[in-house]
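Homework help board

Subject: predicted structure for assignment chain

Our instructor gave us this sequence and asked us to write out the predicted structure in token form, then describe one feature. I got the tokens but I'm not sure how to describe them. Can anyone check?
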Amino acid sequence: MAKRFAGRSFLGTLALVFLAILVIFSADMFLAGMERKETRIEAAHLFAQGRDLMQRGKKAEAMERLQDALAIDRGNHDYLRALAQAQFEAGKTADAESTVTELLQRDSTDGLAALIMGRILVKEGQFPEAISYFRRAIYGHWNQDAAANRLGVRFELIDLLAQRNSKEELLAELLPVQDQAPRDLPTRIRLGRLFLLAGSPARAADVFRGILHDVPANADAYAGLGEAEFARGNYRAAQRDFQTALQSAPENQAARQRLDVCNQLLILDPTMRGLSPLERFQRSLKLLDLTLDQARPCIGQNPPQLQELLDQAGETLAARVSAAHQSEAFESNLDLAERLWQVRRQECTPPPATDSPLALVMARLAQ
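My token output:
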């Protein structure tokens, strides 16, 4: 009986011990959870302070708050991204690069991290690598507003390619953007101009015509359409577009200068339709005379055959040609002008301007 009682007492004591241990363990877990919750709240508070300081332009203080938040919650990707942005904007590119590298090691598809790395590489002048990271950002994942963020990155990449005059790459990025971009007027005007920079005047013309369909008489769209027609060699159409643009925006100096070039070019071009034989002949003489003026400064550089061509041009301009021989002389004049121009363009320095009326007419004749 006594043994039975002693056994029950032992079991009861053991149960109480286990119960006490369970209570203590639960209390420790509860307190640990409360502590973790409090530290997370503290980290989030520091993070919010850092973001606020960034918006107020206090970058050094912002970095301190963000680093304090990370000291508490090192695994938080949002804190790391914010710190990388703050470091980059503060000019701490080496620190920003280190932070972003850590982010990308954790997640190679992080869109914002790839974007920050691209910006760092642009600042360092490593453009091919930067372009690669911008593309990673476009196809990476974003926690929110993924479509808007990807479009924003693509436009940032487009601007970089436009600055570097990378026409083929620029066009490749513009094509998918055309259907995704907002339909507001400034964005459409911007797209049209970017297509011009990308060497695609036909697509630019389509964009500007679409704008004019929706917003008739828009001066910027007419000026853009004029540039597109000019780039395609449709100088008569370009002339009309620039004239229309200037009716609404007479202060547009770029359009006015282009219009002046169109006017001079259309007066000079001997291949324009509707010219009489006499007008064509007279224009060929004018063209030869202008080319001769361009070639004379090359004498001191002694390019091959220059003096012979100069003498021949001088004799041609001084000669009298009967009406019966003007058609034949027209072809001869153009041929001589082209040969003089080739010497001037290829053998003499500095090279001639490529956008002058004479250069444009000569390029047209060479086609």
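Reply (TA_rk): Your tokens look well-formed. For the description, you could write something like this. The two ends are 121 Å apart (CA to CA). That's the kind of observation they're looking for.
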